[in-house]
Amino acid sequence: IFILLFFCFLLFIRGLMTLFQRDLSLKDKVAFVKVEGPIIKSQKIVDEINDYVKDKTIKAIVMRVDSPGGGVVAAQEIYEAVKNAASKKTIVVSMGAVAASGGYYISAPATRIIANPGTLTGSIGVIMEIPNLKGLMDKIGIKTEVIKSGRHKDLASVFRGIGDEERKILQGVMDDVHDQFIKAVSEGRRIPFEEVKKLSDGRVFSGRQALNLNLVDELGDLKHAINVASKLAGIKGEPEIITKKERYTIFDIFNKDLFEEIIKILPNSELKYIYLP
Q1: Which of 25, 75, 217, 273 shows its CA 20 to 30 Å from the CA of 41?
Q2: Which of 42, 67, 94, 101 is catalytic?
C-alpha cells in the first residue's frame, strides 16, 4: 500500500510540474499536427485541431501533410476542422513528399499552403475500385445465391460484373462527390469553380507547378512553414512548438484498427480521395 501511495504521489507531483511549466512558458506557442499516410480515420486529427483552436496560448497551427489521400468522409471531416480553425487562427499547411487527392483536399482551406518544389500534390478526383471475381468463381465452380428486396441492393457486388445501368448509377455518385471536391478547393483557395474544374481530372503536379497554378502559396520546407505561421500570427522571436505525443505498446499491434487499415488498403468499393501511383 505504501509503495502504491508513493507512486501516486510521484504522478501527482509530475502533473503539477508539467502544468507549472506550461503556464509559466514565456514563449508564444505554435501547435504542430501531423497527417501521415492514408487518411482512414479523422477523429484524432479533428479533435487535435479543435483542442488547439480552443487553447488561447496557441497562436498558430502548422499541419504537416504527407498523405496520398484516403476515405471521402474522413477527408471531408478534417477539411471542415481546418476550415473552422482558419476562421479563428492562423493555420499553415506544410506539404511533405505527397499531399495529393484527399491530402490536398484537407489542405485547401488553410491560411497558407507551403509545398516543397518536388512535392506531389493535386490529384483532384475520386476513385472507386470494384474487384470482379466472377471469372475466378466460375473457374473453381463457386456460385452465389442472392436474395434481395431492392433492385439495386447488391449494387457493386464483387461476384459479378457491373451492368450499364449500375455503372450509370455509380458514375452519378462519383460525379457528385467529385463536384464536392472541386467546390471545396474553389472555396478554400478562392479560385473560380470553372478554373479548378479544368485542373480536376486527377492529374498530379509538382510543388513548383502547383505554385504556378495557385494551388499552393509558396515553396519551402517545414522550418519555413513554422516561420511563416509565426509571422502571420504576430509572434516575435522563436516560438515554442507544441505537439501531442502518441504512446504505443507491443499490444497495439493486435489492435483491431491495424487490421482495419490493412483491409482499407486492399481493393474495395469505398469511394476514395486518393492518389494511386
Answers
A1: 217
A2: 101
Residues in the chain: 277
Residue numbers in the chain where pLDDT is lower than 50: 20-24, 247-248, 250, 253, 262-265
153 counts as catalytic: yes
Burial of 275 per CB tally in 10 Å (0-12, 13-18, 19+): buried
Alpha-carbon distances of 20 from 14, 26, 165, rounded to whole Å: 10, 12, 65
Please give the sequence-ordered ranges of beta strands (E in DSSP) within 17-115, or none if there are none.
Answer: 29-36, 58-67, 69-71, 90-100, 112-115
pTM: 0.80
Residues 42-79 pLDDT 10s: 999 999 999 999 999 999 999 999 999 999 999 999 99
Cβ pair 20, 55 in contact under 8 A: no
Task: Annotate 130-169 with DSSP letters as a single string.
Answer: ----HHHHHHHT-------SSTTTTTT-TTS---HHHHHH
**E strand spans, 117-258:** 120-122, 204-206, 218-219, 240-242
AA identity, residue 63: M
CA-CA distance, 5 to 159, in Å (whole number)? 61
- Each residue's pLDDT tens digit, 200-233: 999 999 999 999 999 999 999 999 999 999 999 9
Catalytic choice (44, 88, 153, 168): 153
Asked if 134 and 159 touch (Cβ cutoff 8 Å), the reply is yes
